[in-house]
Write a structure and sequence with these properties.
By secondary structure, the protein is mainly α. The protein contains 18 helices and no strands. Helix 3 runs parallel beside helix 5, helix 12 packs across helix 13 and helix 14 runs antiparallel to helix 18. It is globular and about 60 Å long. 59% of the residues are buried.
Length: 408
């Protein structure tokens, strides 16, 4: 008789789809709209970039609330409502004509993001997997890069063909028609709710009670482990946003076409697939510290290569190296949070951690924008990103030295 597939892998598929749509469209395609919008309304790069900060701040305030709601309510209700809010508010960007309107709508977008992908998906993967957690986490986060790989060139083509407003509406409809049904139909909070056990085991694993141990949110935030982890995550997200959201403006500034720039961004995001799967495997087999150090080194090299991307071949090499190294920004944080804080209250704790993710994400884009406005180029902004990557690696290693609930 054919063995039935463990439902946890359906959670992985559902999480993959939600990241593919929610992050692949909702975050990773924003760069293609940057120049069309500011050229339409003659906004400064720094001022317009601030809409992204508003979205991140809204996500920051919403994430701890979403973490509590996931712990108390049916996750399908929380995620279904969040994905619908994200879809509607993203599409509404098309109707904005002033900076204030962009800022207001960005706040609603941020609330939708909080319960649509990173926080709930990471929580569910940690609930459904123990032995294969790194691999499962790597798989669901490959979706963010694949989403960017597909939707950046597709979105750029749509903009050139139909305009940026119509493109935003089309992509918002995709979020509504794909992400919301996936959240409602597929996702389940924990295997015990379905009479199952993590990893598809026939019964509770030896020491399972210990695995489910962990800090309360109040206890964890009072530890040095938390602050090392939080600073690492803040730095990684600041540099990621500071580079990614300005890639297309930077590449077109130095002489490349918008189509070439969109394709380079797509290649970089596609290479994150290899990086995330590799990092997940290394984390399971060699430990989180090894994975963190190796991939921070790759990411640092990638940022430095960015300065030479006026040459087409160097731009391609940059996309490959930076794409692989960028896996550290998405795969490592939820795995390290589980290792450092435990699983007993993972959702609300990761909701607090998400504050640092979103503040970093919100700061990085306008920081690079204002540095460009001040100095006329991105050299200082990208140099600062190199420093943040090295500092983040140091913070992460210090945090893992104090990890209590998983092999380092």
């Amino acid at each position: 008789m054919r063995k039935k597939m463990f439902y946890g892998w359906r959670i992985v598929i559902g999480g993959f789809i939600l990241n593919f749509i929610g992050i692949g469209i909702g975050i990773n395609t924003l760069g293609i709209f940057f120049k069309p919008v500011i050229e339409t309304y003659e906004f400064s790069r720094g001022d317009f970039s601030f809409y992204f900060t508003i979205a991140a701040l809204a996500m920051m305030f919403a994430a701890p609330v979403v973490g509590r709601l996931i712990e108390k309510l049916d996750v399908r209700l929380v995620m279904g409502a969040s994905t619908f809010i994200l879809a509607a508010s993203f599409a509404a960007y098309s109707q904005c004509k002033t900076l204030t309107q962009f800022y207001v709508m960005a706040a609603v977008v941020g609330i939708g993001h909080a319960g649509s992908h990173i926080l709930p998906v990471s929580t569910l993967i940690n609930n459904w997997f123990r032995e294969k957690r790194g691999l499962a986490m790597g798989i669901v986060y490959t979706a963010t890069g694949l989403g960017g790989l597909i939707f950046n060139p597709l979105g750029n083509w749509l903009i050139l063909t139909y305009g940026w407003r119509a493109t935003i509406i089309i992509l918002g409809a995709v979020i509504a028609l794909v992400a919301t049904p996936t959240a409602v139909i597929v996702m389940r909070k924990r295997p015990e709710d379905m009479g199952l056990y993590p990893d598809g085991a026939p019964g509770p694993a030896a020491g399972e009670a210990g695995v489910l141990d962990g800090y309360t949110p109040g206890e964890f935030v009072r530890t040095s482990t938390f602050w090392f982890l939080a600073i690492m995550i803040f730095l990684f997200n600041t540099l990621n946003s500071g580079v990614q959201q300005h890639l297309i403006p930077y590449l077109t500034d130095i002489g490349h076409s918008s189509t070439f720039a969109a394709n380079i961004v797509a290649l970089y995001l596609g290479m994150t697939v290899a990086g995330k799967l590799s990092l997940g495997y290394i984390s399971d087999t060699k430990g989180l510290t090894t994975g963190l150090v190796i991939f921070c080194g790759i990411l640092t090299a990638g940022i430095m290569i960015l300065f030479g991307t006026r040459i087409v071949a160097v731009a391609i090499i940059w996309a490959i190296i930076y794409g692989i190294g960028n896996a550290v920004q998405t795969v490592i944080p939820p795995l390290m949070t589980a290792a450092c804080a435990g699983l007993r209250h993972f959702a609300p704790i990761y909701g607090i951690i998400a504050v640092f993710q979103t503040v970093g994400t919100g700061l990085g884009m306008p920081l690079s924008g204002y540095l460009y406005d001040t100095f006329g180029d991105y050299n200082l902004a990208f140099g600062l990103c190199v420093v943040m990557c090295v500092a983040g690696a140091i913070m992460g290693v210090q945090s893992l030295k104090r990890a209590r609930f998983a092999r380092r």
